[in-house]
Structure formats: structure tokens, C-alpha cells
């Protein structure tokens, strides 16, 4: 017994034999409702954005250090891999931004009713797609 | 009649003896995540607008933009809010998924140290560019 709480998970069956109590079903038995998918995605994009800060740090440090270093980072961001990273970063940022707003609304006590819960969830997805597309259309227009 | 011993707290005697339990810092952690996220709402939108204009920029373009009174201040504010929010969020993720004590504490310390170093690198770079 690793933990004293394990004692609570032991019981006797009708034959008076000691057995482990059944545990509640784990994640994989549930169908994925929208709220569940958005919740874990909020966390995943958060971790992704943390990795993305390395890119921002590289860009800022390179700009501060030398022309060569800055040319290097600008070149990398223009390669297919660089563009893919930026695309993923911007989509993750918008997603985390909009789900974050939803979290702030919940913290203030709004938006818990089931219809609103669903509606705001789909709104987050729509807003993420629209904002990401808009950013890249403007970006390519400037480029 | 002997008095039966009573628990006036919601923790088991074993839990108390082991010294595991609330550090009483949870509310502050929670509040700082909300505070930084609120600050990051306008800062992120501003940052994205600024970065779109930096597409294809030369180093001189970046430096002359950063020299403005608003960009240099807002960039530092963005960096502080971003990295504070990041280390607080990653701490929760680590606490949720890592079970082994030394690995959990080690990862949290690593995340906090790296966040601080990255934030400092960004701030120093912003100052070198803009001042």
C-alpha cells in the first residue's frame, strides 16, 4: 500500500473475499463534448505558446545583437518551417486568447448556462479561424 | 468519562505529521494568472498589430520603431506579463501531471528559472534596441 487512502478502495465481496473497489471510468470511455475538447486545447495551446516565447526571445535578442543575427532569424521565419511555426503560433495565440476571455467571463460569473456554454464554445472556434486568417491576409498584404 | 479526541481541521493526523498541505499561496497564484491575462488582452492585440507591420523589416526599422516612447514601454510590459503568466500556467500543468516529488519540484524550479532568464533577455534586448 503506497498511500493510506488506498485503504478506502478495498472492500469485501459477497464471498467475503477482499477486492479492490471499482474506480470511476477514465477519460477514454466518454464521447468528447465540445467543452472537454476546448478545455484540454486551452492547456495544450498554453504549453505551445510557452515554447513559442523562445521564438520571440530569439527575434528580440537577434535584433539587439547584430545585423547578421537578425538577418538569420528573419531568413528562418521566411522558410516553410518558419512560416508553419508562425502560423501555428498565431492560431494557438488567438485560440488561447479567446478561450481565455471565456474563462475570465466565467470567473466573473457569466456564461455558465448550457446554451451559452455551447454557443461561446463555437464562437471561440469561429473567432480563432477568422482572426488567424485576417492576420495572415494582412501580413501577406504588407509583405 | 474520557473525552474522545477530536479533529478540528479537515486534515488527517498523518497529513499533518507529514507536513503536506496548503502553502496558503493558492489564491495569490490564481489572482496573478487572472491579473496577467487581463493585462495581456490589450497588450497581445497591440503586439500582433506591431508584428504584422514588422514583416520583412530590417534591423534599423525595428530599432527606430522600438525607440518610440510607447513601443519600448509596452514591449517591456508585454514581456513581464507574458512570462509571469507562462510560469504560473506551466506550474499548474506540472503539478497536475507529475507525480514524483523531486521531479515535480525540479521541473517547477526549472520553469521558473528559465522564464525569468528569458524575460530578462527580452527586456535587455528591448532596452538595447530602443534606448
Outline the structure in words.
The complex is a heterodimer of chains A (143) and B (131). With 143 residues, chain A is mainly alpha-helical. Chain A is built from four helices and two strands, in the order ββαααα. A two-stranded antiparallel ribbon of chain A has the order 1-2. Chain B is mainly alpha-helical. The relative contact order of chain B is 0.11. Chain B is built from five helices and no strands. Chain B has helices at 13-18, 26-53, 59-66, 69-97, 101-130. Chains A and B meet through helix 1, helix 2, helix 3 and helix 4 of A and helix 2, helix 3, helix 4 and helix 5 of B.
Here the CATH topology of chain A equals: 3 helical TM bundles of succinate and fumarate reductases
Full CATH superfamily name of chain A: Fumarate reductase/succinate dehydrogenase, transmembrane subunit
- Element string of chain B (H = helix, E = strand): HHHHH
* Major interchain interface with per-chain residue totals: A-B, 32 and 32 residues
- Which structural class do you get from the secondary structure elements of chain B? mainly alpha
H/I helix tally of chain B: 5
> How does the major sheet of chain B shape up?
none
Low-pLDDT runs of 5+ residues of chain B are none
Given this structure, which CATH class of chain A is correct? Mainly Alpha
Count of β-strands of chain B: 0
Strand order of the largest sheet of chain A: 1-2
Number of strands of chain A: 2
Helix content of chain B: over 70%
Low-pLDDT runs of 5+ residues of chain A are: none
Overall body shape of chain B: elongated
Distance between the termini of chain A: 63 Å
Order of helices and strands of chain A: EEHHHH
Amino acid at each position: 500500500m503506497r498511500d493510506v487512502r488506498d485503504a478506502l478502495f478495498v472492500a469485501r465481496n459477497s464471498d467475503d473475499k477482499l477486492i479492490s473497489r471499482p474506480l470511476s471510468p477514465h477519460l477514454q470511455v466518454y464521447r468528447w463534448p465540445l467543452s472537454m475538447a476546448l478545455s484540454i486545447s486551452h492547456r495544450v495551446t498554453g504549453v505551445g505558446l510557452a515554447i513559442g516565447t523562445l521564438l520571440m526571445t530569439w527575434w528580440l535578442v537577434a535584433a539587439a545583437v547584430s545585423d547578421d543575427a537578425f538577418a538569420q532569424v528573419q531568413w528562418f521565419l521566411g522558410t516553410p518551417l518558419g512560416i508553419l511555426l508562425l502560423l501555428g503560433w498565431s492560431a494557438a495565440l488567438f485560440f488561447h486568447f479567446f478561450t481565455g476571455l471565456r474563462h475570465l467571463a466565467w470567473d466573473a460569473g457569466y456564461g455558465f448556462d448550457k446554451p451559452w456554454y455551447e454557443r461561446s464554445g463555437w464562437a471561440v472556434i469561429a473567432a480563432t479561424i477568422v482572426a488567424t486568417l485576417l492576420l495572415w491576409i494582412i501580413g501577406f498584404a504588407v509583405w | 468519562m474520557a473525552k474522545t479526541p477530536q479533529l478540528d481541521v479537515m486534515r488527517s493526523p498523518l497529513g499533518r505529521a507529514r507536513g503536506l498541505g496548503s502553502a496558503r499561496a493558492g489564491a495569490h497564484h490564481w489572482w496573478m494568472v487572472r491579473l496577467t491575462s487581463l493585462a495581456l488582452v490589450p497588450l497581445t492585440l497591440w503586439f500582433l498589430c506591431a508584428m504584422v507591420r514588422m514583416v520583412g523589416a530590417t534591423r534599423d526599422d525595428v530599432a527606430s520603431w522600438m525607440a518610440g516612447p510607447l513601443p519600448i514601454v509596452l514591449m517591456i510590459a508585454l514581456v513581464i506579463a507574458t512570462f509571469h503568466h507562462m510560469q504560473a500556467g506551466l506550474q499548474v500543468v506540472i503539478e497536475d501531471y507529475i507525480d514524483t516529488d523531486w521531479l515535480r519540484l525540479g521541473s517547477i524550479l526549472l520553469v521558473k528559472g528559465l522564464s525569468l532568464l528569458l524575460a530578462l533577455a527580452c527586456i535587455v534586448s528591448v532596452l538595447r534596441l530602443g534606448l
